């Protein structure tokens, strides 16, 4: 475990407190780079872990991980040009067509992805795509609702990492697909809002292939002492540009050969 000096501890605690308060009050906060700087990714992951630990202590359960900023189009949208990852908790996971209250989010956007469900953990250093393929039990079509506690999505890499890789929720399809014989780099994606196409993409936009993205994540997590486990759900990253959600609406993702999934955003009922 990394031993932190008192000044770094204070900065990390202050950043975590700011993000926790923003989530609790549903009020976006200023960026945390005034506390962390804009390059100290390790400190930002310490903040992320403390925020996640607070949620676990309140009753949430870690069920996997999410990869962010994998597609060049998304990196350009946010001005952050390297991938990152966050923690996936059980209270973030929804099923196909299950209503999501709009009030649950601050500044939500939708993106189409492929979710990996692991049949075994990946604990070896230097994990390869072969390790990922062996460990994957099946994949699912998935929509991620990305969100930011940082006001106006004003991000550097440390801001988004600290804020759990700008996570909100994930919506998983309910039909599993085995990977045997599938080239995920060639999977095409169409994301619609209320029947109108709003985003297009393909697997090769995700670090060359979603399999390569998950291998990157596996290496990073082993290096940080948090390896992927059997049963984990891994959101492998966007296949195309993210789309602002705004008000209520129905988002439908279609993946070539991997089925469909819908995210239904509703106003919260009284």
TrEMBL record:
One of its GO terms (cellular component) is cytoplasm. InterPro entries: Fumarylacetoacetase-like_C (IPR011234), Fumarylacetoacetase_C_sf (IPR036663), Hydratase-Decarb/MhpD_sf (IPR050772). Transmembrane segments: none annotated. The keyword Iron does not apply. Keywords: Lyase. It comes from the Bacteria. Pfam families: FAA_hydrolase (PF01557). GO terms for molecular function: 2-oxopent-4-enoate hydratase activity. Residues 85-262 form the Fumarylacetoacetase-like C-terminal domain. The keyword Lyase applies. PANTHER family: 2-KETO-4-PENTENOATE HYDRATASE, ACID HYDRATASE. This is 2-keto-4-pentenoate hydratase.
